[in-house]
Amino acid sequence: MKNFLLKIGSSVMAVLVLVSALSFSVDKHFCGEILVDYSLTGKADSCGMETMLAENGLSDMLSADHCCSEETDLFEGQDQMKELEKKEQAARNFLAIFTYSLKLQFSEEAKPQTPFQGYPPPLITEDIQLLNETFLI
After folding, report:
1. Following DSSP, what letter does each residue of 30-53 receive, concatenated?
2. pTM for the complete prediction?
3. Sign of the CA dihedral 114, 115, 118, 123?
4. If we measure between CA atoms, which residue out of 27, 28, 16, 9 comes closest to residue 77?
5. What's the CA gap between 92 and 115, in Å, rounded?
6. Residues 24, 38: contact at Cβ < 8 Å?
């Protein structure tokens, strides 16, 4: 159950980052106060009033005071992801170096262990130097 919730949470966060970084524009065409068409990908289609006025020879009325209007809304996403990534990398490096140095500072130096510490030396029954007749001068 915990893994399932973790996967759902990470998926939601990934979608949130994707949506926040996404930028798009909405183009709208109004005829008076009524929304006739909108488009997310390109220019919105007109209601046809411009072509009708141009065909009837009333193009001067079109430029003076016509009821159609175009509106474009631009939604810009976050453009700071790379800067944030660089800052996060620097913070991660600092944290790793800090913890490593802190660990070294408070750890005791390891003393070398002798593997034969628990074993007693052999018993000397004869003087070996006398047997071999080797004397230090």
Report:
1. EETTEEEEEESSSPPPP-SHHHHH
2. 0.41
3. negative
4. 16
5. 41
6. no
